[in-house]
Amino acid sequence: MSKTPLALVQMRSGTDPERNIDDAESMIREAAGAGAKLVLTPEVTNLVQKDATALFAALRTPEADPGAKRLSTLAGELKIDILAGSMAFSGKDGRAVNRAMLFGPDGALKAHYDKIHMFDVAIGGGEIWSESTNYAPGSRAVIAEAAGLKLGLTICYDVRFAYLYRALALGGAEAITVPAAFTRPTGKAHWEILLRARAIETGSFILAPAQGGVHEDGRKTWGRSMVVGPWGDVVGVLDHDEPGILHAEIDVEDVRSARQRIPALKGGREFTGP
Question: Is residue 213 part of a domain?
C-alpha cells in the first residue's frame, strides 16, 4: 500500500477570524501544492480570544460561519481532505462549541466532532482555565475516512484521557488527530510524552497540529506540532512555536505491524475494585 502524504499546519491565530482563515488558507494551499492529500489545522483555527464578551461577539453558528464555508470551498477546489482541527462556533445553550470539521475533496462536510473533555484546570502560578464556562462539551466519539485513512477525532485536552483513544482504536481508527492549543507550562512538561503514549497504547499514528507563540489576546501556546508513529517514534516535528507546515508520509501497514507485535488492544481483561 502506498504511503499517505499529509501536512500539519502550525498557526498563531489571533482575534480576527477573517485574518486567521486567510493565514490557514495560505498554508493549506502551500501544503497541497507540495503534494499533501490531507491537511490538518490546529485547535481554534478561526479565533483565539480569551475575553468572553469579544469571543461571543465574533462567533457564528457552524452553518453561518464564513470561515467554515471558505475551508469547505478550498477542500473542493484543491481536491484534498482538510481537517479544521477545531473552530469555535456559537452553540445552542448559550455557550460556544469547540468543533473539529472534516471536509472532503468534494467540499462536503464528512464529519464533525465536538471536544468532549473541557480544560478546567489550575496549573499554578496564577494560571487558571475554565473552558466549560464558555464552551459546552461534546458527548460522541467520531471516526471518519480521509485520504485512505480511518481517522479518530480528538481535540487538545482529550489527550489526557486514554480511554477515549483506546475506544477509537478499537473502533477501527488507524490515525488519531490531536489539534491543540497547549499552554506553555503543560506543553513543555507533557506534550510529547502524552502524544507518544497515546500512539504506543493504541498502535496508531498521532497527528497533532498546534497553535504556537504569543497570541494577540496574550495567551501563550507551546507549538511543536508533531506526527508520531504507532511504535511511539517521532515521525516529524516542528521544533519551535512559529507558524509553519510539517510534512509527513505515513503508511497504514505500520499500524498493522505495531498492533501485531504488541496486541494490547486485544489483551484487556475485566477486573473488580479497587
Answer: yes
The catalytic position among 43, 131, 150, 174 is 43
Q: Identify whether 269 is part of a domain.
A: no
Q: pLDDT per residue over 174-203, tens digit each?
A: 999 999 999 999 999 999 999 999 999 999
Question: Strand (E) positions, the chain?
Answer: 4-10, 38-40, 81-90, 96-103, 109-114, 120-124, 127-130, 142-146, 149-153, 175-177, 205-208, 212-214, 220-222, 226-228, 234-237, 244-250
How many domains are contained in the chain? 1
Q: Specify whether 192 is catalytic.
A: no
CATH of the domain at 149: 3.60.110.10
**37 among known catalytic residues:** no
pLDDT in tens, 110-154: 999 999 999 888 777 777 778 889 999 999 999 999 999 999 999
30 in a structural domain: yes
Positive/negative CA dihedral, 189, 23, 38, 119: positive
Write out the three cell numbers for 43.
Answer: 485547535
Is 156 catalytic? The answer is yes
CA distance 265 to 263: 5
Q: Which domain holds residue 158?
A: 4-263
Catalytic member of 25, 37, 110, 115: 115
* pTM of the predicted protein model: 0.96
Active-site option among 37, 131, 156, 174 = 156
